[in-house]
Amino acid sequence: MKIINAALVGLGNVNRNFLKILEMKSERLRSQYALAFRVVCAADSSGVAIAPNGFEPATLRRFKEQGGRVCDLDEFVAGQSIQQALSSLACDLVLEGSPVNLAHGEPGLSVTRTALERGISVVLANKGPLVLAFGELHEIAARTGAGLAFSATVCGALPVVNIGRRDLVAADVTLLRGIFNSTSNFILDEMVTGRSYAEALAEAQARGIAEADPSLDVEGWDTANKLVIIANSFLGVDITLADVSVQGITQISSTQLQAELARGQTIKLLATATTTPAGYAFAVAPVVLEKGEFLANCSGWEMGIEIHSDLYGQMYYKLWEREPLPTAAAMLRDAVNLFQT
Ligand SMILES: NC(=O)c1ccc[n+]([C@@H]2O[C@H](COP(=O)([O-])OP(=O)(O)OC[C@H]3O[C@@H](n4cnc5c(N)ncnc54)[C@H](OP(=O)(O)O)[C@@H]3O)[C@@H](O)[C@H]2O)c1
Fold first, then answer.
1. Alpha-carbon gap, residue 223 to 303, rounded angstroms
2. 166: exposed, middle or buried (C-beta count within 10 Å: 0-12, 13-18, 19+)?
3. What span, in angstroms and rounded, lies between the C-alpha atoms of 210 and 315?
4. Assuming Cys at both sites, which of 109, 110, 150, 335 could form a disulfide with 105, CB separation 3.0 to 4.6 Å?
């Protein structure tokens, strides 16, 4: 049995669901994978708590669900940031689930750097560190031998990154397009039925699907973040957000959506990577699709992707994910893949 000492950075919707999975699946992880996850460190916006013998997952989850703050735990370490804690903590794995910050990437970026520099593996749900420093973080991981996995950052449980890296061997992708943000997809679908934008967004927030800053969802930045991660991880290009033309859904009205519906069409917020003589062009924008198209039929809480390539034909994948549990499961998948021998 291999014991994995883990630090949970952020105890929001995603990492609380990770704790829930530990409650549900610990026995299975031991018997099938010979792995035992021990949560030795937990951080939220109030600070860091350390328990060398491990927190009980259900107790920690319920504490946070009931509005508790890490600074009120007995194990709270006063005056220490998570970055400082990670610079000396005996730990094998960081599960990074703090909010996306596109200006400076913090706290996720320095947490990821600090852990990787010490040879501690990192599993990210937070896209920010990759969007701002994809190459640098991979260089550190390669130098120190730490694992770096992030399948949860693109479309939650849909294994887009895994498919791209593992299953498209030697392919040239000629077209990639997808619906990568279920909050905006849900809002558009609800607005067709006459529900207000604000009501639909409030439901996405209540379900724990929307970003902490929902402008990232509706203004297209979350979709663009995922496109940047895809491009860097399996399209063979080194791009940043500055290389993506980004437009969100905030200018779209119910009237416009209903008019498209009457014409047998629908509007979706699409990410696209198209090939041009100068290389790929990357865009995020609302696009009118015919009702019969694959992505037109990714509705509500679904996300989807189509990947056309020279070797593997045209692939179509979609996912229905209405709560963050599948995203947390994607982090578990990454962690097991890193530590299974
Ligand atoms: N929700 C989803 O379906 C989903 C899907 C894929 C990826 N993601 C990504 O996963 C990450 C987490 O999402 P979420 O829905 O769990 O977010 P969330 O519910 O907003 O939780 C964020 C957590 O981070 C904590 N935090 C904030 N600042 C911190 C700091 N300086 N140091 C340590 N912790 C800090 C918050 O503390 P408090 O508890 O004190 O507020 C909270 O516990 C985000 O980057 C998101 O983009 C989410």
1. 11
2. exposed
3. 27
4. 109
Give CA separation, 187 vs 3, 127, 155, 184, 286, in Å: 42, 22, 17, 5, 13
Catalytic residue among 226, 268, 291, 318: 226
* Confidence at residue 341, expressed as pLDDT on a 0 to 100 scale: 80
pTM of this prediction exceeds 0.85? yes
Catalytic (active site) residue 127? no
Q: How far is the CA of 267 from the centre of ligand 1 (A)?
A: 29
In words, the CATH class of domain 2-157+325-339 is alpha beta
160-320 fold: Dihydrodipicolinate Reductase; domain 2 (3.30.360)
What pLDDT, in 10s, does the model give residues 96-149?
Answer: 999 999 999 999 999 999 999 999 999 999 999 999 999 999 999 999 999 999
Count Cα atoms within 13 angstroms, Cβ side, for 143. 11
